[in-house]
Amino acid sequence: MARSNVILLLLIVAISAVSCDSNRVFDSYKSVPNKWHKDSIVSFNITPPDSTNAYNLFVNLRNTSAYKFNNLFLIVEMQFPHGKTIKDTLEYRMADPTGKLLGVGYTDVKENKLWYKEGVLFNEAGNYTVNIQHAMRENGKVNGVEELTGITDVGFRIEHSANSN
Prior knowledge:
Elements: H1 2-19, E1 24-31, E2 35-37, E3 42-46, E4 54-63, E5 71-79, E6 85-93, E7 110-121, E8 128-134, E9 147-149, E10 151-160
Antiparallel strand pairs: 1-10, 2-9, 3-8, 4-7, 4-10, 5-6, 5-8
């Protein structure tokens, strides 16, 4: 009987932690099967809640110790409802100078919340699409890393900006 009470308590705590995230507007992950191919694009379709408030945008990643690089290059493309597209090449630190992976997590899996854009206004009505792909290269090599290991999930998050609350 005590074991079921512990499981119930853990479930309640987990639900409370998720529901207390008042800044969250959109938060979704998609799994990367085994290896992230350089031509594989992870897409998120977003219907913003309104056009008057500013939002902060993040790329979320889950990675394991199989990730062997100190940094990560991503190409993030935002497609607006009326055809405009913004494409950015971004670099993020994934490990400290000693090689220890950055991010949050007590196990082999680390979560990284990476800044994408700050104070964004979704002023076009309709659905937006965010496409994310990796653009990793090994030092001294021209061709990109064909299959990136160690990234397990790619996510996208929209939060209320502190200035808009």
